[in-house]
Sequence to fold (147 residues):
Amino acid sequence: MARIGSQPKGVPPLYSPGEVSRAILYAAEHLVRDVIVGGMGRVMVGSQSLWPAATDELLLGAAVDGQYNDIHKTDSAPNNLFHSLKRNERETSTGRHRSFSAYTWLATHPPALYAVAGALLWVLPDASRRSRPSSPTDKQPPIPSGE
Fold:
């Protein structure tokens, strides 16, 4: 029963059931308290802990309005309120699901996460040293004024 007058849609980013089930399985096997699927999920959890009122306002505007779709759906359209839908009436393959999340993969593969963090800690200081002059004489000469 679509009481909103249109076919509801999920607010992106949406992840495939396979990606979510792999994260749940990891949490069950490794006794992890929280598993967040997707980098945007991590951002939302972090912002909720830092700025709860601002995050609530953002979600109120984006999440509620983001559930409306341009596809009209009547009250008599098939729904799963009291029974499951037949296979051909399900709306599962909208093409909007992401089948992979780099954030979730790194969160569920700690050795890879440590390797990436170590590589960043090794590369970033070297890159920052290259971007700044090593001495005051290495600075670029002033640009002539054209007079």
